[in-house]
Structures are given as structure tokens and as C-alpha cells.
Please model this.
Amino acid sequence: DALPIWEVVICDVRQGLVCDNNDNFPIECSDYQIRYQCQCPPTTAPPAVVTTTTQQVTTQQAIVPQCTEGWSQFMNQDSPNTGDGDVETLTDQQRQQLCPGGE
Model:
């Protein structure tokens, strides 16, 4: 029978998944994959800016990136045998690209 292996792992939206080999000595961290869930805010129409001149009316509308709810693909950017463990995380910019306008 296989025995369960318990590992000390931190996992949240900001840090991603972090497994430090030092916290799990003498066992090396497993090679984890992570994915994110995007939750979009309620749909609201962005404010429009209207400029009127004598000959024409120009309407400008703010461009809002499309938010798509759901799960990302699984990501595996690190390996437990490179560095201090397995760190699967995204920068703020990568998270924003993954889920524009959402959380």
C-alpha cells in the first residue's frame, strides 16, 4: 500500500504555490502544477465621452480589456530540483494578462 506524503506548501492568489525543500527535509518537494480561476466583475457600461462641434459629433469610449471567467490552463514553470523547491507563481502583470479586469 502507498503511504500518503505530507508536504508543507503555501498556495494563494498573490504568492502562487510555494514548496520549500528545507521545510520538507529529508523529502524533496513534489513537482506541482497550478492554475488560476478568473472571476469577472458584474458587467457595466464604461462611461462615454461626447465631444460636439458645429459640423460633427464625436463619441469616444474607453477600451476595457475583455474579462473571461473560468480556469486557466495548468502551469508548471519550476521544478523542485532547481533551486530551493517548487515555486509556481505569476507576476502582477502576468495575472492581469490572464484575467484582465477581474480577480
Helices lie at 92-98. The first helix runs from residue 92 to 98.
